[in-house]
Write a structure and sequence with these properties.
Length: 178
Amino acid sequence: MFIIFSMDPELPDEIDCTKSTSRAKEWIGRLSLEKFKKHQNFYRMETDPALKVTIESRQGALTIEMSLYVVIELECQRCLCAFNMDVNKVGKYIGIETGADYKIGSQKDDNKETITLLEGKLSLVSLVEEEIFLEIPMIPKHFRDKDCQLIGSVEVTVKPKAERKPFADLARMIKNNN
Ligand SMILES: [Zn+2]
């Protein structure tokens, strides 16, 4: 884990990758909270996202690595109380210019994701938003039952969900259409 202090420099919204050379370049700092407007009803950022971004041009491809640390606030879907979650991850990507002819598979060495650049620019804000979004559980809830207000106070009976049989439905639909 890496720690960024509040006096670390504020990073730009975008990094211009057209200037990158074969030497790896590194950016360390934070993105101001004010730059993030999306998903405000869905989660809230508690801290400025702290980043370490490394960009390197390797064999004609742009390899990007981003370490991200941010604390977000989510609403527990069981007790409807807010709780904090740490997002702490490292992502590796291949940067591709929009519309560029890039053959997926030519870099099958590892599990890098591809991200599109617009006129050689990498949007840090979008990348951070995307990474946070991927970390949010489908149904956010307190990690420990003892923190959950609902679990703590009331006995909760969990009803088994009605079993879904998508293929049975499909079969019925086909039958009805004939
Ligand atoms: Zn809860």
